[in-house]
Amino acid sequence: xxxxxxxxxxxxxxxxxxxxxxxxxxxxxxxxxxxxxxxxxxxxxxxxxxxxxxxxxxxxxxxxxxxxxxxxxxxxxxxxxxxxxxxxxxxxxxxxxxxxxxxxxxxxxxxxxxxxxxxxxxxxxxxxxxxxxxxxxxxxxxxxxxxxxxxxxxxxxxxxxxxxxxxxxxxxxxxxxxxxxxxxxxxxxxxxxxxxxxxxxxxxxxxxxxxxxxxxxxxxxxxxxxxxxxxxxxxxxxxxxxxxxxxxxxxxxxxxxxxxxxxxxxxxxxxxxxxxxxxxxxxxxxxxxxxxxxxxxxxxxxxxxxxxxxxxxxxxxxxxxxxxxxxxxxxxxxxxxxxxxxxxxxxxxxxxxxxxxxxxxxxxxxxxxxxxxxxxxxxxxxxxxxxxxxxxxxxxxxxxxxxxxxxxxxxxxxxxxxxxxxxx
RNA sequence: GGAGAGGUGGGUGAGUGGCUUAAACCAAUAGUUUGCUAAACUGUCGUACGGGUUAAACUGUACCGGGGGUUCGAAUCCCCCCCUCUCCGCCA
Length: 424
Fold this sequence. Notes:
Elements (H helix, E strand, L loop, with lengths): L3 H6 L1 H10 L5 H42 L2 H38 L18 E5 L13 H7 L3 E2 H7 L6 E2 L2 H19 L3 E3 L4 E2 L1 H6 L12 E2 L4 E3 L4 H6 L5 E2 L6 E10 L18 E11 L4 H18 L4 E5 L11 E9 L4 E12 L1 H6 L2 E3 L5 E3 L1 E9 H11 L6 E2 L12 E2 L1
Parallel strand pairs: 4-9, 8-14
Antiparallel strand pairs: 1-11, 2-3, 5-7, 6-7, 9-10, 10-16, 11-12, 12-13, 13-16, 14-15, 17-18
The protein binds one RNA strand of 92 nucleotides through α3 and α4.
């Protein structure tokens, strides 16, 4: 959520930025935000003044009664009666302005950073880097959904039996590969300076609002209604919410947390032709990295996080590309996002495996995550997060790209975490 | 699941309708004193939204788990909800 004070600071910049998002009538949207806020302020001023009078008179009543001046007290009581009607109508106006303002602000996405290219969709994303040589597979190469059956390592039918479609069962070397990759990603994160966190995989309502899954994306989360808990769609939710209503000082910064969790997504309405096999699941595993920085450092951190993700992909010897997302393809809350995609040779498609974003103050504003300087000055912090990495599509790419006549060759980087070198 | 006790600032903790401008202590922080350290003493020390100012100073309102209510006036009284702890039950 944008701050009104930040909009006021540079209205033109906000308008230009939001125009890049292809929102129509940005000017009138911002104008109404500012005018509602003006009305809110005016209402509050009058309300506070009236309340001050009531407080003062109440004190006088107390003093009069102590002196035994009942008549004086009654007179004062009458004057308060008039103020009270003013107050109650001002209160309902204030509430109305606040609600209207909040509803407008909830609908406004984050302002893209200046470096974000303009565009409308995936085709306008800027390719920042691509692996030179894409692998070509031998005759008879199989897509991963056939390979997992051939080697009996991931079973969708069994998952369907015990849970439903999109909940795979990993078996034997398939299960061990999952475990190895989680350990590999966590170890690499630790080496990169992250503290490991193991959070709950359900969160309460307040946490859902904190990172913005609620109220918009309620339908995308599994909801345990008996206890009003939500299954997390990503570790971003619990790990970022650790810092909800928190004030950090210089000594606490930067924050670098990493955590592995399963992730649950209902993916309502998004099943189609390209979501076979591991490409889209209701439950999958992911290691997430989260950083919190002072504003002046957040873009350097974004680059650092990207480097970390790239190093993982290189160690896994996967062909990949890095995209700077255009304004039209970026998430609602992000100011700048890089996507990483691995090349799936048998499908001849790029698969998104990581998304690294700087949210600037957009999340921090809802979270009330702030920094207090030595001088006592308060400011919102910048939050960043990224996948490092999501497993299923990495598994798909490894299976497809590394298939040989003898079996599937495990990348060297994973060998310390496994007791086999080949799936056969 | 049953019964009971609680929820007050960074922490401990006082406060049963106006004496509170939320005491006191601890922690933190700045200073004084001191050969150094320690101690002592003095000051500062919440957040949000406003007004005010070039910026400050200054100033209004709200906040004692959350939401309502009673009252001229609520941390305090009433109602609903949430959470924590203890004991019992069940249990990986």
